[in-house]
Amino acid sequence: MPMDQTLVSMKVEMAANVAEITLLGPGKGNAMGPDFWRELPLVFADLDAETDVRAVVLTGSGANFSYGLDLPAMMPNWAGLLDGTGPALAEPRAHFLDHLRRLQQAITSVASCRKPVIAAVSGWCVGGGVDLIAAADMRLASADATFSVREVKVAIVADLGSLQRLSGIIGDGHLRELAFTGKDIDAQRAQQIGLVNDVHPDKESTLAAARALAAEIAANPPLVVQGVKQVLDVSRAPQVEAGLRYVGAWNAAFLPSGDLAEAMRAFTERRPPEFTGR
Description:
This protein is an alpha/beta fold and about 280 residues long. The chain has helices at about 35-50, 70-75, 90-110, 130-135, 160-165, 165-170, 170-180, 185-190, 205-220, 220-235, 235-255, 260-270; strands at about 10-15, 20-25, 55-60, 115-120, 125, 140, 145-150, 185, 200.
């Protein structure tokens, strides 16, 4: 397992047979920048291989789980495609698709980890944060948690797994409502639609409940628990992978747009965007 001092975006701690991952940012609100995307698949590959780990708890530092993608930190990866500096020809589109596939595979490393993963969510869980918890096996929330599949608000088709995984968690109608509107929902609504298993009063009690659930799982025969997860995922995983490939091709083709440029301008100018469908 990577030593904590080599990690920038998260820390990993062990208690008995449970690994606890805490998101650290370093972007505001544990925003997901280059360090996060580099470290996440390495950490989960190690947790998958480590026989002493039987369950994983995933949480955020501070008041929030994650604000989602750290756009300012990630924009250099999309030069010539999304930043308006080039005509968005085949080469920048191909580079974007390669980069997007790496981000998708980072989130998939959570879903494909053979050890059950429990997300403990407090505060904001937005965009990429929802992608991340959708890849977990179970989700618990504090009463102050707020969730949003926010990408539509910035003229992006969500492309890191929410659209592929949430239908099996909250159902098609609820997913379409969240993805079409980009609305925020509170913890109570999240529990009503099945996004979270339980809601607890505050961050501390949520994390305690996640640790207790992980310990309960860890007390069972580890290979049997892993077998249960693999059986549950055998039909779902190929469908998710096909959907991720499709949305990757879609966004490589259609993501550059007048509306995306307007969303970026509005974000930097701190004003509501005016979308025109161009």
